[in-house]
Amino acid sequence: MRLNLTVLLILVAGLVGCGKSGPDTPVLAAAPEAAVPSTPLSGAPRPQEAAFIASGPLVVEDQVDIAAQRPGVVAQLLVDVGQSVRKGQLLAALDDRQLIAERDAAQAQVEVAQANLKDWQAETKMAEADFRRAQGMFKAQLNTQEQLDHARYKWEGSVYEIDKGKQELLHRQATLQAMALELEKTHIRAPFNGLVARRYVRLGEQVATGDRLLWVTAVKPLRVKFTLPESFIGQIRRGQLLDVTCLEDPAKHPAKVIQVSPVVDPSSGTFEVLAQLINPGPNLRPGMTANIRVEKAR
């Protein structure tokens, strides 16, 4: 028993000795931390760009869908998509045979009214002459008062018939003019110089009043319409030059500001600007999307 206790004490003393470090025991130094590159804080101010890039479509002032002004059947199509046209050029025509017949009938009615008016003018001159003669005979006591009054009433009635004939002639002439206008509506003409961008009808098709027939668009002057934030008010003005680029044509094209909206859209906080391109390239077309560089005030 005493031997076992002695062995146990020797073991405990050895363990305690091993847990202490002497003065010659080396001590390992901690490894230095790796250098972390410094990054700016997300809230730190960034340098402002020198220009603002806006975008907008290339447009032209003259661009319209030509619609039928009266019902009818398309009898002629003289142009097609992509063809250049001149102002006043005949583009298409509706069947006008019925209107021509009605116009001719109205013209005949005008000629009848003109003949009737001339007839009444001649009758009035005769009635006036009879009245003058009746006046002379009444002064010479060769006829009665009743005969004089009869001649007077006949002359005055003829004067009224002349007025009636004039009004009838005006009515017939107005009818003829209305028929001529209806006939003119069957002839579809170009409202300005440009080209045919779209055709909506076919030959022989029945159209109603208001149906679209052709889309005619001008090709110049070429303009760009875009919006700017309200912070640019006072920085953009008429006559100012801007640089315009398109995806299809990366070259820079100068444009002059021709219109600046005097109001700001409250829903978007922007105002509209219209600029006209100066000598645009041949690759630019109405409807393209353009980028506009606007220098910021420093």
Could you explain the architecture of this structure?
It is a single chain. This protein is an alpha+beta fold and 298 residues long. Helices cover 34% and strands 27% of the residues. The protein has 3 domains: 51-61 and 219-295, Beta Barrel (Elongation Factor Tu (Ef-tu), domain 3); 63-96 and 193-217, OB fold (Dihydrolipoamide Acetyltransferase, E2P) (Beta Barrel), CATH 2.40.50; 97-184. It has helices at residues 2-19, 97-139, 145-184, and strands at residues 51-59, 63-67, 72-77, 84-85, 90-94, 187-189, 194-199, 206-207, 212-217, 223-229, 241-246, 253-260, 270-277, 289-295. The chain has a 6-stranded antiparallel barrel with strand order 1-10-13-12-11-14. It has a 4-stranded antiparallel beta sheet with strand order 2-9-7-4, with no helix packed on it. Strand 11 (241-246) and strand 12 (253-260) form a beta hairpin. Helix 2 packs antiparallel against helix 3. The chain is elongated. The N and C termini lie far apart (100 Å). The model is unreliable at 1-47 (pLDDT under 50).
